[in-house]
Queue: 2 jobs
Job 1
Amino acid sequence: MAKNKDVRPPIFAVSVVGLSGTEKEKGNCGVGKSCLCNRYVRPDADNYYSEHTSVLSTIDFGGRVVNNDHFLYWGDVSHRGDEGLDCKIQIIEQTEFIDDQTFLPHRSTNLQPYTKRAAATKLQSAEKLMYICTDQLGLEQDFDQKQMPDGKLNIDGFVLCVDVSKGCNRKYEDQMKFVNSLYSQIVKSKKPTVVAATKCDECVDQHLRDLHAFVTSKKNLMLIETSARFNINIDLCFNALIQQLDKTRGKPKSVSYLEAYKLQRQLITSVTDRFDKVMTHTVRDYHTTWKTVVNILKGQPDYDEFITLEGSRKARNMFTKHIAQLKQEHIKKRREEYLTALPKTLNNLFNNLEQVETLSWTEAKSLIHNRPDFQYWFVVLEHTPWDESDHIDNNDRRIPFDLLNTHEAEKIYLNHVQHLLSEKRRVEMKDRFKKTLERVHFISPGQSWEEVMCFVMEDEAYKYITDSDRRDVYCRHQQEIVEKAKEDFQEMLFEHAELFYDLDLNATPSCDKMSEIHSVLNEEPRYRALQKLAPDRESLLLKHIGFVYHPTKETCLSGQNCVDLKVEQILANRLVQLDHGRSSLYYNSANIDRINLCLLGKDGLSQELANEIRAQSTDDEYTLDGKIYEVELLSVDVNSTLLFSHTWVTTFKPHGCFCVFNSIESLNSIGDCIGRIRAEIAQSRRDRFAQPLPFILILANQRDNVCKNIPILRHQGQQLANKLQCTFVDIPSGAFPRKFTEFQIKQGLRAVLEGLKHNFDVLAPLPCIKDLTETDLRIVMCAMCWDPFSVDLILSPFLDSHCCSAGQPGQSNTLILDKIIGDSRRRIQVTIISYHSAIGVRKDELVHGYILVYSAKRKASMATLRAFLAEVHDVIPVQMVAITDSQADFFENDAIKELMTEGEHIATEIAAKFTALYSLSQYHRQTEVFTPFFNEVLEKKLSIESSFLFDSSSRECTTGASEDVFPTSPHSHSPAYNTYYPESDDDNEAPPPYSPIGDDVQLLPTPSERAKYRIDLEGNEYPVHSTPVGDHERNHKVPPPVRPKPVLPKPNVKKLDPNLLKTIEAGMRGNRRMPRGPVTHTEDVEASDNYADPADSLYRPRAFDIYLVPDDTHNRLIKVKNSFGALPGLHAGEEEENGFDRKSQAGRRPSKYKHRSKILFSKIKAYQRQFHSDSDGEESCPATQKKKKGRAHRGSEEDPLLSPADPWKLGIDNPAIMSDPEQDDKMKKKKKTPKTPKEPKKPKANKSPKPLYPPTRRTWESNYFGVPLQTLVTAERPIPLFIEKCVDYIERTGLTTEGLYRVCGNKTDQDNLQKQFDQDHSIDFMAMDVAVNAVAGALKAFFADLPDPLIPYSLHPELLEASKIVDYIERVQVLREIVKKFPSVNYQVFKYIITHLNRVSQHSKTTLMTADNLSICFWPTLMRPDFENKDTLSTTKLNQAVIEAFIVQSDYFFHGGEVADSPRSEGTPPQHCHSMVEALLPLQLPPPLQPQQIQHALPPDPLI
């Protein structure tokens, strides 16, 4: 038991001995003792040294390695036996060192001869170091220093080395004599001995046999055949000796040298193959260096094993051969590339057969060399051939010209000539076949090739060309006729404009309506021409209807030919934008006699400039251009904290800022400061018309080194000035002693004054015009897209006038005319838009007159005019304009004559004005052509505005939402929706054809919001703010939610919405000065009912009908009695059956022009009569009767684009208009008595209100969408697959899409995308060919459907506090610490989506989606705040700023990058709030669609 307490591996000392001595005794080389020890102790090939000398200097002999001894300590080797027992073997080599001077053995303490000394079993040498190689001697400190343990060793066994090679000047017999003598001494020590036959790789067989005989003759002596060079049996030699020392170990098997060598070579071959594979896989570029490869392969088993066995030198040799092979392969590949590109090059150079048909290859090469574009295709090298030059390493893909001298190049040329010959013939035959198909007139669009093939099989061209070419020609022919048929079909749809006039915005057309459309169109040959392409025809029809639903310039079917786009381009190029309505911030713009200057510089430079200005001034008065200005100076250093406090601007009120610099460092500091000053001022100001602050960059003179840095500073300063849009003042030419000159100061002051004059509009004052925000007349000019005339033609009467200027900022399609109309100067606002954009204007905005333009060459143009004009109120004057080339067209072209005559007849019927403009004539392009029309409009202005007021109040009473939608009056300065639906400058896209908000829409202001309004003198409401409106209010885009309207159980329950009554109250209060009567309710009406009261329960002190309200479900008419007193301008005696006197001009509800023109009325009725006559036989079906009744009781023929038919679409019910001639006519002719309505059922109990963010917007069950984020991710896939697919698709296809993430995609496409993904997660979005906006919408919907927002609610307060930190660097640092607190799943997804948004923002030049715009679109989705909370409304801007910071600094937050420059420093000011009352609204385009989607486009803020 005691033995096992401390088990240590045994240690054996082995002495390696053999022939040693002088050269005379041992010959020129030793017997291999050192190599044997080296290979055993350090077997790695890199640590094996084949040369070990015994001739040493006295110094080396006395060093610590030799230590004046004739033996070397090689170190120890740990050995593990088969049984797992460990032992340590210490190696000693007994040798004899020769003095390099005397060539005699060195003298040492032991003077015995080698044979006796080598057989010694006890060795002693204090502090003796381990020997490694000969280079170690004298440089012991550069090698591993390991001492012989305890300075003494006891030898346990011997290895006797015998060289069996031929030897060097040494006889084998003499060696054996020495061995016999040495062995006899070793035997005396009674220590086990093993004989090692060394250098067996060069052995002499006789010597080996003699050695075997010697060993056999001795007792207990074992012979091992070894080779240190190839590492054969080295371990076996020492293992055999260890077995004799420790009998517990198994006796090793003796293996002959040849067998061991064979096994070793097999091992080396295997290791070499594996290393070669690894290197081939790793090194694929012949430019790779060996050092790089070593760093890559180090640590790999195959590499390490090869290095151990063969060494680094062989590894490098293999690497060199591999690199040479890669280079040859690269050259071969380049040659193939050149030979592959040569046919294409020849095709570009000689694509005409006539050029090369008779040329030889030598002549062709000469012709190629002389071509002007030779350098584009070929390169002439200085060193040839090309494959031995540096050209192989170039990225130049031009073909080396010396390659053309090869046989392969000549063969390619001959093949090219032959190809041109055959291609010429092939093209001729394809053209002939195309003409053959054109002669076959019965080929219809969509007809398959198989149906036509049999009719052309006998054609010669058909037989010559291949089947692929036949199909290709036929496919091109089909494309042409299909395209022509689709164009004709689209034109036909426009020609039937009246057929689509009553389609509702954002509603699905009813079955009756679709049947009516198909019934009418089926009579058209152009409709039947697409019979075989019925799906395409239906798609075109639905696309056209969709355009009618959503008529904007983005959805315009004419694309870039849209009138709206062309007008915007022309006006942007030809008009100078005037900044209307800008108020004077500090002084009146007319007289500026005081200038406050801020001087900004670094290291006292600003103070030097201040001193120079004061030196040129007299008592702080500066004379400039003959005028004296009082100059107040404020010198500020760029590092001063004063710059970033808001007080210095408000207290000092600078008119301009001189920024001086004299070095690159000071220039960079100036640039940063300007950006931060602009951002801080913009963020703090409240007045959107605040004056921009002019910045003047001034280069200071460097008196020490004038000529060295001035050009660089001048260039850098000019670049920064261009970037910041400010003025740069250079150093004047000539020598001068001071840093600043009088010339520079005066130039800077002039720039400040020019900036002030520009800001105050004093460059072009209009003294005869009233306040620029007011216009006397508002005229709308309409033209149809795709009409065959230039838009310049209809704009020229205005643009050629000297009194024309730009409209208000943000109204790119509006211009202002300053004309004398009547007896005074008038300002006329003319808005030039397309008919489809004018539809929304026609009903909902104040227009004093219409100029309706049509092409006399196009029936569709006239049809569109008719459909539009039919719905215009007859009190509004109309000017009709026909466009053609010349007056001769009227007499030479019957079609033009017919359309011009029709236009003139319509104008005559409705008492409108009619004129013609001729594209080839200049006479009618003068503004005077419209002067009579303007006079008429001015005369009727009061009646038009009175009618508009009356119509607006009626619509407010009937729709219950007009107060929030279109409360514009002739003098109103603040529409309500500007307050409730503010919008950023960039977010002025038309809303999509569906509601992205859903049911959570407030159509009426709450009582608390009404308190914000005040009634002006004319009874109109305008918003009043007790405190300035913050930025958050303008960016608050999501309206507060209200209770959803429950589904009524019966379609004929007649109830009125109390909200409607509130609207009536507001309308009466806002537009009538008479007190309204009380409203009482019967006792059975529940006070909690938020929707409809029975009509019979209304109190009726004076009962007369003022309007009809269609029922919510089927548009049945409900008469509502006036209970609020008489209307303005009406007396009790004037009331008639319809509730008021139609003859009273002040309160007259206007009719429409379709009731004043037989042509307009007949066109509309023609479609209805045709359809009803076709469908009379279907009246037996109750469902059909019900639908037809709903259509018949639609109310009036009001504007079709106001309300959807389906209640779930959130439309506003369209009120019926009393005494509509068409409706009266229908009612009189109707013979059938309507069925008595059934008793209404009791309404269901009100549903509980929906949450602010409902769990899902989907209508189907899903296991993927709307579930917690944790269930969608794994450790291997931390990002949900749907997000990855969406982001990948958007980044591949949508980074050039304007309005990405802002313009909503089609909701149906979004739902289909999610449904298909729900069913199959492997679907390919690219294969689906879905619109990128739909994918973007689906991605946002994914986050909106999550049970919890991506940014946890618990972190919202911390983010809010961080956003209030003034210092930008500190703010982003705090935000980075907060984002680390996100749950890991949320963090990964947030990092992914923010990084994606950063990439999107980098393409803002094309998408127009900056980080600011993206944050506006995304922050409500990512944070999901409670907008019912007032605190949320006050922090909207801060929340948006947080998301913007994440987007801009995504590299810093998530990828370890540096803080990027603040976006505010790049000239993009933050968006501002508006606290002042706005002017009369210009026409809004595109027209508003739904109340919840209306967002007023604000004028862009001036750049500060």
Note: The two ends are 94 Å apart (CA to CA).
Job 2
Amino acid sequence: MFKRTKVTDGTATGQGPDAENWDGKEVGFRKKSKVPGVMITQYIEKLPEGKSHPDFTRKPIALTIQEGKFAFFKAIVTGDPKPTVVWSRNNGDVSDPARYQSKYDPNSNEHTFEMPHVKPDQADTYKCFAKNEYGQAMVTVVLNVIEVGFKMTKAPQQQAEVANCNFKKVLKRRSKVVPKAEEPEKKEGEIDPKFWELLMSADKKDYERICAEFGVTDFRWMLKKLNEMKREREEEQAEFVKNLSDLKPIHINADGTASFELEFDLLDPSSSIYLYKDGEMIPYTKELGDKMKHCLRKVGRKYIFSMRDLMPEDAGFYQLDVEDVNMFSTDFKMVDFLVKIQEVKAMEREDAVFECVISAPLSKLMWFGKNMPLEQGDKYDIEVSEDKLIHRLVVKDCMVVDKGIYAACAGIKSCNAWLVVEADKGAPKGKKSARKTTRAGGSGTDLQKVAQEQQQKLDKEREERKEKIKAAREAAAEAAAAEEPEKTADSGAGKDKGAAVEVERIDKTSVAATTTVAGDSGSGHSAGKASGGAKQDGSHADAGGGHSAGKASGGARKDGSIADAGGGHSAGKASGGAKQDGSHADAGGGHSAGKASGGAKQDGSPADAGGGHSAGKASGGAKQDGSHADAGGGHSAGKASGGAKQDGSHADAGGGHSAGKASGGAKQDGSHADAGGGHSAGKASGGAKQDGSHADAGGHSAGKASGGAKQDGSHADAGGGHSAGKASGGAKQDGSLADAGGGHSAEEASGGARQDEPLADAGGEPGITSGLSDILATRGQPAELTVKMNTDCDGAWFKDGEPLKSGGGISITKDANIHKLTIHSCRDTDSGLLRFVSGDLSTEGRITVGDVPEFDEDDLHKFSKPVIVRVGQNAAFKMPFQPQESLTVSWFKDGTELKDGGGVKIVREPNHSRLLLRDCLRSDTGEIKIQLKNPFGAVEATSQLIVLDRPGPPEGPVETVETTSSVIEIKWNPPKDDGGSAVTNYIIERQERGHSLWTKLGDVSAEKTSFRDRNVTHGKKYSYRIYAENPQGLSDSLETADSIMAGIMILSGPPGKPKVVSTSKTCINLTWTPPEDDKGVPIIGYQVEKRKKDTNQWLALNAINEPIEDVNYAVKDVTEGAEYEFRVSAINESGAGDASPPSAMACAKNPNMRPCFKDPEDFLVVRAGNSVRVKISYEAEPPPHITWLKDDEPIAPWINVINTEGMSQLVIPSSKRSDSAIYTIKAKNSVGEAFFDVEVRVTDEPKCPGPVELEQTVYGKVAVSWVPSPDQELDDRLYYVVSQHDSNTRMWKTVADRLFANTYTAHNILPGIEYHFRVYAKNDMGLSDPSQSPTWGANSNRVPISSNGVSSMEISFERPPSILVPLKVHTPPKGYQLYMTCAVRGCPTPNVSWYLNNTCINSDKNYYITNSCGVCSMYILRVRENDGGEYRVVAVNSLGKAECSTKLTVRD
């Protein structure tokens, strides 16, 4: 059970520390604490200097903990004098030292209140009081305890409320969702209660999905019932909350946690909030952070439940309750991946597809790319199939930067795969490749087929549920139709609080009637008594079937029939009244909170009290004709019994749920009513019969079920009953015994009355009232087993089937009806199954002999020695022990159990256990304990862990004992923590003010905590710091708060009045003279202060510890246009002296100056169509008026002028050639004016010149002429460039540049060589396309030379390629240009190829490759890092191949 704290408004009279040990003050002053929730009472109005009332700097934190765990509260208090701390609780005392322990740690100043092995009854509101002579501080803290095995039904709480007759609240608190371990066997087709809970918390759009999941198809019926349930639930919720809204079901977050949230306002802030999973309460935290798995946070009106470290077992049905009313329900499901996403290889600008199939429909998966959550957008498409089983992620327009790992997450399940993007090498240089319409990726399997198979499987399961529900409804309808004609007695539904016939309880046996034969009391679940009435004709009426919390009994009739009081849920009394005509009204079936009974009528018939749920009694009324109403079928917490009839018959009390007694009545004809079949917490027994047969008491009983004896030698069956009491058959005249089997009972189930007795008595036959049970015995110790009978009779003892007798260490004794077996000293041979037999009765139990665990004395002595380690080292403990079965080994530190994990490693072996504490801290010092526990007992061994560390800093503050012109004496206190070893000495260091160097003065012994510094200078200030030292090292330092001056303070006189040297809008420069009287102490600097006009506050521009060493200073912290005055103070070792007289007022503004331009550019070239921006910076005071002119004329309106402080811009948005001109900027202010001209030329790449003509004027010279370019007239900066090419060199070379004419004369023109000329036009934008000349000179003009008949031999020049000049090694810097050349020959001319790292680069545009007459060159404009590597030249012709190589290393 979850023990909820009873929060009260305060400590009542007689409670708390004030009632016992505290002399409380009647008058006090309430004070406010800095810590919320602390109540402070100050006893006096004004505190003495240096004294203070108590206060909390750390208050205890509310705690929710499981039963049996170690619970504790911690608090830190302050106050002078030191307060006394006392703990108390609202509902009980804390004086038991075994349950409550108060501790104080002087090192950490922590007060601890500990509760080892916390129990549910310790759940309460605790108070912590801190008190000294000046006041008291008090804080409250709540402890909640979760009882092990608590279920959502909250049974103990309901029983308490039943006792208070609050049955309506009990019925509300019954949860429809129970833990799986307590779930009753579900009937075929029954709807799971989770269905309705989910619907009441779900959106309407989810109704169809939930109905399909649970197999519900009748939506109209569902909506009707849901609306009724919602109205009831909203009425319940209105008692505790308001404004319930924003219900968000549980979902997985991106950080791997799961959460659900809702918003509401609590009507009572102290109302408790509970969380359940599958009907079982789960602990949660509000303030302990990540120390618990579950957390419930409140943010404003919003309540957020979160769960970390998700595991598959976390799936389930979660509910949030306020007090006993459900607020929200949600189902957390786990799905799995049937097909996981696969690796995708995509080309650049292609779409990539990841797809998967899950095991259950899910509307959305969480997709991640490179550890970032992905959402639907321009870059990503997230697709879900109609059946919500297939999920796809489409990465659109893949780029190289998109490569990485992508993941799909469904709850705690996930799968991931790589996306590999390959660059498109065919893309144009410097431009993006075209967008591709293809998709890469996919799972490679038929996803649709997998999804269809899974969908068919889900549909099949859904249809099976629908069929079960349909079949269950049809069966229920048929059963209702069959029961309709069988109804004989009137079962009215009135709610009557009248009186009823009540069956009295005598010695835990039910009074059946005053006649001689008992009726049947079988099959009822009863909380009271259920008994049958007697009939003369031998028949009986049924009082069974009802859940009863009161009494339910039938009335008597003359004609031998009985009216039925069954069917009603009753918590009180439900009885039928009497009628004059002999008939009786039925008291069954009614819901009532009091008594429901039939009233009397004049004609003799009573009003019907049936049909109601009653909190009183349900019984049958008496009739004049002797008949009796049946009290069966009602739910009652009282008694359910049959009434008496004149004809000797008795009503049946079976079928009700009862916590009382259920017994059968006796009949004259020898038959007996059945007391079986009922779930009873009372008694269920069969009555006696004359014919030798017996009635069956076959209900489930919580006691014992045994058969009675019969005269004919037969025995009644006592089987089938679950009992915690007794279930026995009653005696019969023929010697047979009524059967008491099968009932659930918490008391006794006994037989009814015989003919010669007016009462059904259970004491006539022998019975076992206290039997044997399994016990554990310690070896060598005595053990005793006792059996108690209800009569004095003999019995025999057996062990493992063999009879036992006294002797051999065993004693068997008998004292009246008590039988004892005593084992004087238990041995291993005494273990076994013991059985006691008395006649046909027997009981058995098993005794097991064993030893309490123990340690070896040497091992115990060795373990008890303390383990000493340094901080950061590991501490290890080992304890050997004898191997045993069922042995539990636990390790503890300072009473807290250690668990394996983190810095704790626990190893358990059969014969020893080891504990390892890693990276020990000083705070780990404490007691280490090992506990061995088995079913026979436990043993413990303790040791100590001492962690050595350097000491803590000395305690401050540092006190100044004496200061003179030659001596400074200081004093301090020892450190609180010596680090585990004694302090050996203290080290003192000193720093002079204004210096950064610390100087060691010396050290003193640990016994002395003061130091005299004799090496000081009068007037100077010093700071000191003290270290404590032990064998582990030095502590942190304790430093003086302020500098200490040697001697008295001597201040300097005032300096001279400051003078203003110059001013600007950002700076004012000052100068001054040193003071005339420095009082004999050297001046180390000055402090400057300023005051703004019309203010009285002087502001320091520099700190005293940052003096200005010179006698001038530039004040930059000024506002433009503001006026200031300044003063100066001289600083010496004692501080700042008197201030100088203030300076004259100075205004922060620039001095007047004539405009001037700063570094302007006088020429600008812009391509036509681009914007023109002419920027001119200037300086002037006051700001000048700016004017722009174009060729001394005003500029056009479409030309923009942008003026800012210190700069003017002329902007032409889209320039044309006509915008070329000289632009003049004119700046003028009151001081003067300035001009500046900027030539702007708007041009474009020139058009090529006209046709080129060649003409030879003299031998060896050719005149080249061409038609001018069309742009020559528009651009006066245009000129021409001429290039020449001849068949001998086969290379183009520039022979003329910057030609402003249209002709050129080429020299050294040789015959027999072909010449070509190209003419380019060039301006500021670049070269035009060339104009090509015709060919000059031809080989066809040569005259053939005859051989004059002389024959010549044919000579072949063919040869394979060869390398004449190989490549050289190059190491150029990054970004530089590079030429690489080699010489190759061969005939025919070989084909030359260049390779970089075995990759051909002939077609790579990053390399310019030429081959001129065998000279092979490769040019790189700017060397990059990836240009490094091995370069190889391969020359190939028809006769062979030649190659050479080199390496290129790129330097940074």
Note: The CA atoms of residues 233 and 325 lie 8 Å apart.
